[in-house]
Amino acid sequence: MTLQELNQLVALGEGLTLEFKRRVPRPERIAKEVIAFANTRGGRLLLGVDDSGTIVGVRDPDEEVFALRQALRRCATPPIAFTLERIQVEHRREVIVVTIEESARKPHFLRNGRHRQAYIRVEDRSIEASPEVLALMRAEKHPRNVVFTFGEKELLLMRYLEHYGRITVQQFAQLANLSRRQASRTLVLLTEANVLRLHPDEPHDYFTLAYNASSSAA
Known about the structure:
The protein is 38% helix and 23% strand. It has 218 residues and is an alpha+beta fold.
């Protein structure tokens, strides 16, 4: 990548597949960003660019690369593949372009002691992956022909979506008098069958009918 190409990339601003960092932050934070890219559509992490899009470079690129590798080795599971490119932006300052592909091994998790949490990318944010997102990630690895019975609860769901356009797991649980787990399994199953589409969001994911949804599936 040339300096001109770097400037053009930075001009796009942070988004679904692009994140700026002035330097490598604490291990959990940088691992979270890389995990989110690997769990979504991949992306680029630019080290040496601040949040405003100003290219400042890093003074010691070897130290930054070492910190990145150590953070991912310690905090990311399973391991995440990435490539590095270093671009000199001024004397003794470089920008490090970290490229992460969407992973065939997802979901990847942030490991923090005994706890594990997956993250995904939504617009320019890295957010926690819901149980439904994780279920669909795992389902992608083992595609199956989904068979389900279109009963009373499913008809209630369809009518609700035709009227309101979207529904959360909790809303469906209340609507159909189901436990959250039962509601989640039904919505995930219908998403696998391409009847519904899942939209990750904060504070809650939501589902729409697949044929009139405008966003991409998780």
